[in-house]
């Protein structure tokens, strides 16, 4: 006999919150099992800034929860993923890292230095940090900007390992039928899919792709074992 739909909804919701041990089988890098991994790496954080209440006794607080890494940019998909994560994934004892990946300019005259480009990138995503602090005032939030000439997906996976992330959240665009055919063909040929697919299948921690279903509410969630699982807002 198969499990009722309500069983899987509760199981997935629990895993996102880092709940009981029964949810650890959801993915290889379950949200609950990743707390231990976060405590080993929390001292090696590369930060732009954090809440003032994280100073002083912040070290012990940082090691008590997970590090939830959310990939951000200026797109609506990124903002939707951030909003979902703050509502359904992040808890007060967790730490949030907003990761913004930029490409190194190549083959053209560049007037800006890397420091200037990083400063501009911080300014672009800083409103998202303010949004986090508004929604989760007790959660320590930081911005990490990485400039790279490598593939974005590879950079995100490497940075999540370096930062000791327990959960990785990414926004996802709506797939067209033509795109699905191309992606399946590329996957069969061993070429891999896009950035989101690469992160889901190569991340050490639990990687979650989030797409807002419609204006009526609800999100489509994709992990290594669940594809386009619909959760109400």
Automatic annotation (TrEMBL):
Residues 66-211 form the UspA domain. SUPFAM superfamilies: Adenine nucleotide alpha hydrolases-like. CDD domains: USP_At3g01520-like. Residues 1-65 are annotated as: Disordered. Residues 15-34 have a biased composition (Low complexity). It comes from the Eukaryota. Pfam families: Usp. Coiled coil: none annotated. This is UspA domain-containing protein.
């Amino acid at each position: 006999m198969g499990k009722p739909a309500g069983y899987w909804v509760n199981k997935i919701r629990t895993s996102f919150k880092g709940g009981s041990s029964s949810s650890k089988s959801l993915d290889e890098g379950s949200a609950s099992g990743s707390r231990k991994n976060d405590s080993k790496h929390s001292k090696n954080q590369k930060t732009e800034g954090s809440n003032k209440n994280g100073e002083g006794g912040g070290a012990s607080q940082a090691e008590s929860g997970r590090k939830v890494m959310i990939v951000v940019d200026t797109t609506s998909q990124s903002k939707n993923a951030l909003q979902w994560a703050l509502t359904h994934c992040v808890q007060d004892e967790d730490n949030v890292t907003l990761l913004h990946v930029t490409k190194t300019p190549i083959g053209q005259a560049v007037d800006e230095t890397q420091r200037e480009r990083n400063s501009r990138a911080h300014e672009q995503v800083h409103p998202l940090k303010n949004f986090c602090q508004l929604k989760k005032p007790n959660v320590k939030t930081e911005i990490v900007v990485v400039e790279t000439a490598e593939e974005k997906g590879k950079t995100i996976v490497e940075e999540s390992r370096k930062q000791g992330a327990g959960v990785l959240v990414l926004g996802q665009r709506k797939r067209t039928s033509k795109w699905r055919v191309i992606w399946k063909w590329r996957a069969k040929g061993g070429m891999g899919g896009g950035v989101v697919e690469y992160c889901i299948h190569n991340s050490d921690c639990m990687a979650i792709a989030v797409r807002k279903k419609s204006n009526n509410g609800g999100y489509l969630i994709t992990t290594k074992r669940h594809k386009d699982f619909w959760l109400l807002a």
